[in-house]
């Protein structure tokens, strides 16, 4: 996923630095991914590696959350005028165009999931929790009012 505001290239810089910082460790990545990639370091990123994982995989992620907005979508380096500061602190204070950017980011993520294709050994739960650690709270997984995936709490769906 490479969606950012202002045409920023922060994500590409992060990917490039991962390649440099992890030099030598690519040999430990799955051959099923590295043999299909011109740049083995891309296999550190789920959008490149997940489609080649053969064991059962259940992806749990938010479509966008505070960490993604602050570090991937709108890092400081692409918002030198601090236009996004208010929105980044409180999603309820985002302008209509900022909300649209968030929705576009979400759609890009969902499209990346679709590219994985159908599989009986893969599933996913994508939350709309703006707080990065919301899904880490145990009650989110199993309380009576926790989200369900057709009639199963998240904990049950992952267990299946």
TrEMBL record:
Keywords: Cell wall, Cell wall biogenesis/degradation, Hydrolase, Secreted
Keyword Secreted among record annotations: yes
Places the protein is found: Secreted, Cell wall
BP-aspect Gene Ontology terms: cell wall organization
Gene Ontology CC terms, in alphabetical order: plant-type cell wall
Region forming the signal peptide: none
Pfam (any one): PAE
Main location: secreted
InterPro entries cross-referenced by the UniProt entry: PAE/NOTUM
Molecular function in Gene Ontology: pectin acetylesterase activity
UniProt-listed Enzyme Commission number(s): 3.1.1.-
Role this protein plays: Hydrolyzes acetyl esters in homogalacturonan regions of pectin. In type I primary cell wall, galacturonic acid residues of pectin can be acetylated at the O-2 and O-3 positions. Decreasing the degree of acetylation of pectin gels in vitro alters their physical properties.
Similarity comment: Belongs to the pectinacetylesterase family.
Protein name: Pectin acetylesterase
Gene name linked to the record: LOC107821613
